[in-house]
């Protein structure tokens, strides 16, 4: 009887706590400097949750270590719903696939909500004499020493996606320049220091529109509405090219289910609003609402996918 009473009291306390949540400001850690897709997602979610829940949601930018500093701070925080984080493909998929970390991307976190994703595209400097993917592959095979390939960093999504393409196209012997972020890599392809890059559409779009870089193909199973004339890798005969630069919200492990459910519901409700969907779509980010369980499974599948690719291509930071 005492055990039953204790269980009922514990359940009542948890429900009451969730109903009173949030009773103070909530921090959302963004694992990057201000500006860019990660910061946009963090501030957008903070604004939406603040309006919905009547409380202040503060964005804290914490760059460094490829997102590991922010990830460890979140994993070590109290699981009370007052410390959240923008978890993305880097912190919760590619990093765990290519390096040993001081955090477990699955066990140390509670998946709360997927927000959205942007596809990757293969782009070249306009000096590369190829107007389509077939022509580029032919040129690359005939002139392997004339191309400099760039990435935003070893083991990041844009690196792994390039390695997936090179393997599928039979291109070996690439000369890579690995940068500290996709921004410097884009600056150098615009300047002609490198010839080939595979950034996210959100980051590349302004430079495509200005004609400073030339897109050849985009990941995903269908063409992107912001680049309707750009074919997908899939339709060009390259299967399995559905990579995304995705963004979601996570919290520390053992976050109360009531709080997780409430945050998920509010984020998904916001993603259903036409105004927010249009705002994200204008930034080339497609909303991807999921339940916490679906988001958790998505992250596990992403880690397994990139771990397999990294092993096949002998990519490791350890």
Describe the model.
The chain contains eleven helices and eleven strands. The chain has helices at residues 2-19, 36-53, 68-75, 89-98, 133-142, 157-169, 182-191, 201-209, 257-271, 274-282, 292-312, and strands spanning 26-30, 57-61, 83-88, 109-119, 121-124, 148-151, 175-178, 196-197, 214-218, 244-252, 286-287. The protein has a six-stranded mixed β-sheet with strand order 2-1-3-10-4-11, with helices on both faces. A three-stranded antiparallel β-sheet has the order 8-5-9, covered by helices on one side. It starts with a helix and ends in a 6-residue tail after the last helix.
Summary tags:
single chain, 318 residues, alpha/beta, D-Maltodextrin-Binding Protein, domain 2, 2 domains, 6-stranded mixed sheet, 3-stranded antiparallel sheet, 11 helices, 44% helix, globular
Write the layout of secondary structure elements.
Blueprint: H1 2-19, E1 26-30, H2 36-53, E2 57-61, H3 68-75, E3 83-88, H4 89-98, E4 109-119, E5 121-124, H5 133-142, E6 148-151, H6 157-169, E7 175-178, H7 182-191, E8 196-197, H8 201-209, E9 214-218, E10 244-252, H9 257-271, H10 274-282, E11 286-287, H11 292-312
Parallel strand pairs: 1-2, 1-3, 6-7
Antiparallel strand pairs: 3-10, 4-10, 4-11, 5-8, 5-9
Helix pairs in contact: 2-9, 4-11
CATH superfamily of the largest domain: Bordetella uptake gene, domain 1
Mean pLDDT: 92
**How many whole angstroms does the radius of gyration measure?**
21 Å
CATH class of the largest domain: Alpha Beta
Estimated share of beta-strand residues: 15-25%
Q: Look up the CATH topology of the largest domain.
A: D-Maltodextrin-Binding Protein, domain 2
């Amino acid at each position: 009887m005492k055990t039953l009473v204790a269980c009922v009291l514990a359940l009542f306390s948890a429900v009451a706590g969730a109903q009173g949540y949030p009773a103070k400001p909530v921090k959302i850690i963004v694992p990057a400097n201000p500006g860019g897709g990660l910061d946009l997602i963090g501030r957008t979610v903070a604004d939406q949750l603040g309006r919905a829940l009547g409380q202040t949601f503060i964005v804290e930018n914490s760059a460094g270590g490829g997102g590991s500093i922010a990830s460890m701070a979140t994993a070590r925080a109290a699981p009370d719903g007052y410390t959240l984080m923008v978890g993305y493909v880097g912190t919760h998929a590619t990093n765990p696939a290519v390096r040993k970390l001081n955090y477990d991307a699955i066990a140390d976190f509670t998946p709360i909500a997927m927000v959205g994703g942007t596809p990757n595209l293969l782009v070249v400097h306009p000096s590369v004499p190829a107007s389509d993917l077939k022509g580029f592959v032919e040129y690359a095979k005939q002139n392997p020493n004339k191309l400099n390939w760039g990435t935003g960093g070893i083991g990041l999504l844009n690196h792994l996606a390039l390695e997936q393409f090179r393997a599928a196209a039979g291109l070996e012997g690439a000369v890579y320049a690995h940068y500290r972020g996709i921004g410097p890599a884009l600056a150098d392809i615009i300047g002609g220091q490198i010839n080939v890059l595979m950034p996210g559409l959100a980051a590349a779009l302004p430079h495509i529109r200005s004609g400073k870089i030339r897109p050849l193909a985009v990941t995903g199973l269908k063409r992107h509405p912001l680049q309707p004339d750009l074919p997908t890798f899939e339709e060009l005969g390259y299967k399995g090219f559905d990579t995304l630069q995705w963004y979601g919200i996570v919290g520390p492990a053992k976050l109360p289910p009531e709080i997780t459910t409430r945050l998920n519901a509010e984020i998904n409700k916001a993603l259903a609003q036409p105004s927010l969907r249009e705002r994200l779509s204008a930034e080339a980010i497609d909303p991807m609402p999921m339940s916490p369980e679906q988001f958790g499974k998505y992250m596990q599948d992403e880690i397994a996918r990139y771990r397999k690719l990294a092993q096949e291509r002998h990519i490791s930071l350890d």
